[in-house]
Design brief:
It contains 16 helices and 12 strands. It has a 6-stranded mixed β-sheet with strand order 1-2-6-3-5-4, with helices on both faces. A 6-stranded mixed β-sheet has the order 9-10-8-11-7-12, with helices on both faces.
Length: about 475
Amino acid sequence: MRKLIFVCTLFTFALALTVHAVDPREMSFPPLKFQPPEPVRFVTDNGMVVFFLEDHQLPILTAVAFLHGGSSYDPPGKAGLAEITAQLLRSGGAGQRSPEQVDEDLDFVATRISSGASRDELTLSLNAMRKDAELAFEILSDMVISPGFDTGKVSLELSNKAEEIRRQNDEPARVTRRIYYQTVYTGHPYGVYPTLASIGNISREDILSQHRKYYAPDNCILAVSGDMTLDEIKALVNKYLGRWQKSGMQIQTPAMATMQYMPGVYYVDRDVNQANIRLGHLSMDIKNPDRHAMDVMNFILGGGFVSRMASQVRTTAGLAYSVGSYSYNRPLMGTFFAYCMTRADAMARATRMIMDIISEVKENGITAEEMDLGKESIINSFVFNYDTPGKIATAQAYLEFYQFPPDQLEKDVEALQAVTLEDCKRVAQKYLSPDKLAIVIVGNKEMFDQPPDTFGPVMEVSLEKE
């Protein structure tokens, strides 16, 4: 009897679900409202801008600092200086602490401090328990105010960088990436990479000069979040970073990149049975108003899992291990490129198919269904990029660093939602330029299904280390 009652109950429940079931393809939702909490912004007496957002979920504290500088600002003949200096802030000792003492003190309290240099910015980051915030900020302040730049560590970092350069041609994918950027950014700092010669030109005095010029509070924007109040953060920042002296220097931003390369094939001879391909051209900077439509169009072209390149080149034709495209917007001019890893004997077929897909989208655009999928995917992922107080505070610091308005995150979502099919077609026609392609091919041309000159004049690139 109990079994019969149980079966009847299940049947009734299933019937109710069937009656009220809704086809998920017919479901609709109101437009997403993205309204992240707003961090508190304040400026210290020595000119440092600070963004702070409380987060009491866990007893931790995080901080990220942005400073104008980076490898694009390296002096001529000294490529690698910004990167080496940034690494030595962390590894070279700080204040009265030797490099080993810094490591021991941070390890003892499970605190992490890192520093780095990208093309356009210098960064420092800190992660610590709330109870160890005083020690963490004390060491961080010593790193930026009175770094040790231990001579032994200077020699070690320069040696490590030289060894990295000696091994930079070991991986074909990394070679393809480097040669592509060196080509499309010909004549611009974005295309300059460290060499054995440039590393050999860097002295400890160069590192000290680099530190004096770029590591200053009036060149710094700091994002902090964690288990503290605003008054506590202000006290902590003023206590340890308040003694940091202004430099008063104006950092000169490098010029925007312009096209100075010759379209065609840039071939790198490697005796491997695969072909690494990257083809593209200059595109747009980070403030271009067409960037949102470009992102949606590129998601369908080659940026998403269900893109045309992925479905046609990889899934249907089986010609690629990895394939896609990217719209990489950068402060001093970005680049659009497609990439592919394939068998050597499929190089030409894969390259031709990618170029045909680009030409097709340029000429005819994408469909309404594809556009809707692209918009939904990008907006959903966008929101999850800012789902913690730490991410939000860092984002606000980044926005001010590049002089965006404070509400740019909300504006980005609105702009993505407003993208139309006509916008996607317009940006495809405007920013996809098959006649300006720099096509980098790394592999063994004796194994290719067609020679590299199938796609234009060939420039052979030497991988000799300088």
